[in-house]
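Pasting two entries for a bug report.
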Amino acid sequence: MAVLATWLGLTVFIHARRATAAMVFAWLCAILVVWSTAILAERLTSAPDVAELLNRLELAAGSLVPAAALHVAATFGSEGRRPPARTAIVIAAYGLSLVMAAIALAAPDQAWDIEPPHFSLEAIPGAVFGWAWVVARLAMLVLAVVWIGLPLRETGADRARRQQLLAALTTVIVGAIGGALRIVSEAAPTDPWIGVLLIAVALGTAAYAVFGQGVFLAPVAAADAFLYSVVVGIGMTAFIAAVIGIDLLVRQALAIDVPIVLGLALVVAVALFDPISERVRGLVARVDYYGMAERLERALDQGALVGQTPARALEPTLARVARSFHVGNAMVLDGAGVAVAQVGTDPRSEPGALSLPLLASAGEPGVATGRVVFGHKRSRLPFTAQEMTLLGQAAEFLADLIALDVAQERQADTLANLTERRAQVERRGAELSQALGEVASAPAALGLRVYALGPLRVERAGKPLTSWGGEKAGSRQAEAIFAFLFDRGERGVGKDEVLELVWPDVDLERADLAFHRTLGGLRTTLEPGRRARDRGEAVVFHHDRYHLDEDLIVGSDVADLATELAAAGSATEATERIGHLERARALFRGEYLDDCPFYGDSSTVEDRRELFRGQLVDLLLTLGELYEARGDRPSAAACFRQARQAAGDELPRADEALSRLGSTA
């Protein structure tokens, strides 16, 4: 176990030192080396004082093993930024373990053991503290298994990540059982070597996970590291054995005690180590461009994103992006419209699907190598501006992977020219990984974000508002007033208009009382910190009309729609224009303010609803014509059919286009 832990820990430390999880694993291996070596030396030494010192070292290192295993599970099992709760638990585990290790080294008679001598208090027997320490270590091991197993439910179509997690889970389970048996042996008459044997088996499964499943290292890089270490190890062993043998023969032949050959061999080894190691590395290394995958993996800090080649990295990368944004289906299409990577089912026919062009950073400006299509989010809400930016980064990264793969196939013999492009891919990979890790934990805006192109939904700090009124005000009435105020914008709303809309059959005095009570509840919902007698700033009264404060709404799909349509109108390249129109189309989830209480069923909203319906029809027709001009007949036909459906009646322009494309209704 000491030899295996040393070899495995050093290999991971040398070849994957940029990956945080790899460094934590190397730290665990170092602790296991100290622990197992102390056990072995303690059994072999004949000096009682040395045996006592080694026993203390064994106990100290053993105290740190469960905490280090928990640290590995917390780091490897968390994709992106680790949850704060896990970090706090790991810190607490290390704190307790370090205290126990220090006691084992400095004052073993005060250790938390079940049998005396041990720490105790007058009111509490020492065995209680001993059992508490046993339970704490067992809890660390159980929690490590749970943290590695939980991400398996979220891997989806990411097969590489799933295989890595399964290999890591097997390692942790076997190691946890071995550690538990070793810990229980302190309190029960069991053979401690059974636990040690299982921990050694766990190290063997860890070696399989690293070299067979690409955990911490890209598969080809792991294979090269394994072969290199084996060849160099055998060579060094043979060299040392030969030198010792020759030195003994020379000293016997010359009848001298000075190790002349050993000294000369040491000088030769120092002088020739670098060139020989480079020659061996060159012999065992595969095609050099596979090193790009290892550098990408380090930049992304996730082995699941990068396999052996850029082409094979497409699907794991797409799977992780889809998982980060809670998208069920996604697909990467090449320039001919052929799917080259897919997660789930074909998302192109989904309402609200988002299609982005693949523009490689090193390619011809404005020329797409294909496109990536993301299906709707599981929440059915459109993508926010922040999510649009991150998905754009993901599209650029996927385009760079495709472009790099094509370049490698054509220029395998001239890889020196790809250095700059590799650096760009690594940089974009690092930016994407950092951005994806911060998606879930990024602080949301303090104001409100409104989704009105469909069922009304309002969010604050990423969470939807579900209750609109106060204790004495109706939630549905307050939601209707908010929708009225939002729709009117700067024009504002008069009280009489609200009374006629929400309380048409109630006498004026009671309706007026209900209005002010409901408005007060709405103000409290929009400004949770508002005092009871303070009107606040969310809804202001000016010139006999009520208005929403302009700083209250920090974003809306209506504003995003106007931005995308304006950008599409000013775009000069067809690909850029298609991207803006696709993002605009993805914002539509249904009729404007559909299902909004009172206001959504009134005639007041119909003018605006008709306006947005016309905008949807116009952009679908324009988008279909752009796809038709580019030769993408399926996408064009889908746009024309959706335009005809959105129009709700005859649409000659769409019918003529479908006739040109040879499509039927």
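Entry 2 (this is the one that rendered wrong in the viewer):
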Amino acid sequence: MGGAAGVDKPGAPALLRVLKQQFGFDAFRPHQEEIVTAVMAGRDVFAALPTGGGKSLCYQLPAVMGDGLALIVSPLISLMKDQVDGAREDGIPAAFLNSTLSADEARDTWRALAAGGIRLLYVSPERLSIPNFRASLSRFGLKLIAVDEAHCISEWGHEFRPDYRTLGLLREEFPDVPIAAFTATATAAVQQDVIRLLGLKSPFVVRASFDRPEIFYRVVGREGNGDEQILRHVRQHDGEPGIVYRGSRKGAERTAELLASRGISAVAYHAGLEDELRRARQEQFVKDKVDVVVATIAFGMGIDKPNVRWIVHGDLPRSIEGYYQETGRAARDGEDAEALLLFGPGDIASLRWHIEKVEDPEERERAEARLREMLRYAQSAVCRRTQLLAHFDERHAGSCGRCDVCAGEVQREDLTEAARKLLSAAVRTGERFGAHHLVDIVTGTPTDKVLERGHDALPTFGVGREHERGWWLDLARDLEAAGCLVRGDGRTAGFELSAKGRLLLQGKETFMGAKSSGSRGPLRASSRKAREEQPELPVDGVGELDMMAQEGLFQSLRQVRKQIADAKGLPAYVVFGDKTLRAIARTRPTTSAALLRCPGVGEAKLEAYGELFIRAVREFLERAGLS
């Protein structure tokens, strides 16, 4: 690990062998192997992988196979213990240094570092800003620096952290140590910012698809303050972990109190609480002691809990990027999850009030642009996935089947002819004007701006008098959301036609938009897709368990996992994730060799827990008369 570019690197068989032995996986996820190989060849790396894409393995595997120390920069102190516990459970010598350690614990960690007994060291950017600490790293054989949540270094990133800026000093002070930057949310502008600020040298760049096909996206009109809708949604997901985001501390407290009063295990989380109480509530959620956290945006960055099954936004988020990151905290295990956004007219006034308080004109303009993009997402009848991925410069054809628009929950109609009228107005005016001016033209409104430019003489003047201005403005919004109209400089310039828009204008495409009389409608029951058929795994003994027996065994395994986790003070998923337990329930291994074939079971966990889980399987089979 950490040698110069061009050094010998382990071949695929060696990587796969360690992948299985240490982590319990038979194959890499997309892009992992290429990133690991680049890191082990001493290259700098920039990797944008979606949440659940397996970023941590990309630096943990090189640390296991190489020598020396890998330094992991993590933004949240509250998360480090879970990250270290997870690595240790996989048999990796890991530690963290932060303010939560006692003096004796810190001394023990420093001694272990000096003795070469630690492969992964987790620290915060604030600690790295201390010159003496950075100087001490050179004594411990530093071979790799991994920066998690790397978008925090960029002012264009939605979770900018000033202390991340000091990370640029690492390149100056450790010029020969490779730096790997990881993020689950970065536009092209943020990517370039991260590479520049960290001083990455000719990095190996990976931009995986940001699509999260396991998440179903839905937008619903909010009724009142939304609390009763949220209550109904939580009850539809009884016992399943989830997060509710509210736009204010008061809203978070109110919603949490309502849920708790109706017998739901829920707590509030926001920056106004004492640090100790916030930490305690996060730990309760991570360790399955609480089902629901009602939070402001202060909650969730870097949360590793893999079995979050749903996310609700009770208020309109401030940006698409923040919304994507927050919804991405669901379904880290790859299983189905839902993201519900409740949206009401009051959201616009509230967010504009906050924007007006921003003193910097450029930042205020950026905030306005973010709000416009968020409004397009919430109000349009265009595939949610198409809009989300467009923010990250990724094209999606639509018809995803995994959002309310594509599932037919949003009423739509063919608006091709109306769309061509608006596009024609844009072309005939030189593609230099925004939505309001184009709508003035098609509705035949003789404003001073229209008359001064002679646009009342255009063939498109007044061709859309049959609809109100608001109807046409909604259509312009949908055309922008669909990528048919694009802004010249991405923010304030007039609309230009994209290649897709030109095909539509030429009559080579059709356009489906929101039906004018239809609202988003009432909250609907969950419409999860049927789970894909699970891959076949080797089994011991008798044939397939029926689904009820399989679920019963899964619940028994969860109890075993909970007992182990509680005894060790660990989150349950650190022992085994739900995906591993479902594989065990499906294949019911009764030998060590069979258990080792289950995904997520490596040799360290087999030795630690194998006997307990094999015994649980045997006892369940005996009780069910299936042994």
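Dev reply: Rendering is fixed now. As a check, the viewer should reflect this: Confidence is low (pLDDT under 50) at residues 2-8, 517-545.
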